[in-house]
Amino acid sequence: MTVRVNGDSSVVVVEDQKSLPFWKVLWRFTRPHTIIGSAMAIPALHLFAAPTFQAAFQPAVLRSIVFAMFPSLLMNLYITGLNQITDVDIDKVNKPQLPMASGDLSPTAANWIVSISLLVSLAWGMSHPVLGTQGLNVALWGSMLLGTLYSLPPFRLKRFPFLAAFCIVSVRGAVINAGFFAHAQAAAFGGSIATTTVWNCLCSDPRCLLSSLFFAVFGLVIALMKDVPDYTGDALFNIRSFTVRAGPKTIFHSMRRLLTTAFLAVGAIFARSAFQALSSNNNNPTLLMASRILVSASSIAAGISVHKRSNNVDPENSTQTYSYYMHLWKLFYLSYFVLPFVR
């Protein structure tokens, strides 16, 4: 508490603002919802890439997950941190609670954090002759390249709606999903260098391709929906997002319909395939059927949730649309939770 005496002899009591512990500021700087998504994607994609359920629970799988997790979370921190550094003025309007916009984190500290995160992440990915796979390095370098182009001048692709969406869709779709799928095949399940490239996994393994396409669609929804609550600040600073161009109502309802359709389509496909599992040549058709029923039920429930939660949301109310946007992230986590059961 500080006591200040003004020139007119009046006394003013001012509450001193307590500085937050650095670890709390750093956690907010990571944009937790994104780093949690990355942390869930890596083990989920390893289990998904396993040829059988039994193969998923080998020591090599855990070793591969741990090795990939550390640089990937650092890369996530680099990308989200760089975006906050370059968007600090916009965030003072759209997201004043972020650590740089609120003054809890200085520009110098932020620059050090993102620089160290970037260098350690890339170095770690190339540090091991076996675990530093092509898939892992494609995920790291691809994310770094697109994240940098998205935020950093003079490129700053976020100014251009198609290119901004392309960056997010590419990272959340092929770069992460195919990259870590290929990494798991090589580092955890003994695949050869020739057969575990990202390109080969996308072209030769339908599961890798289809999962990448699904999360690319989800990435598109996230890319466009995240701009709906940011409409005011983006318009003020001439960021011509799709929301600024088409209006928050148009983007909100179109993305809601797209994600609802995607979830319900997946649910219907797996509901049908669940009944075909018993007549398949699988060694354990009952387990296969149960896995497909789980995927189907989860997808249908998620699709209903996307639609139902939107009913009471005003697309022009930033508080309501941000809450809805964060609800979509919970469904994003759910999608990775059930991904290993996609068989």
From TrEMBL:
UniProt-listed Pfam families: UbiA (PF01040)
**Do you know which Gene3D superfamilies this protein is assigned to?**
UbiA prenyltransferase
Q: Looking at the keywords, is Transmembrane present?
A: yes
| Record's keyword annotation contains Membrane | yes
- MF terms in GO: transferase activity, transferring alkyl or aryl (other than methyl) groups
Kindly indicate where the leader peptide sits in this chain.
Answer: none
Residue ranges of the TM segments: 35-53, 60-79, 109-126, 138-156, 162-182, 208-225, 258-275, 287-304, 324-342
Supply the alphabetized keyword list: Membrane, Transferase, Transmembrane, Transmembrane helix
Write out the similarity annotation: Belongs to the UbiA prenyltransferase family.
Q: What is the protein's name according to its record?
A: Homogentisate phytyltransferase
Task: Give the organism the record lists.
Answer: Eucampia antarctica
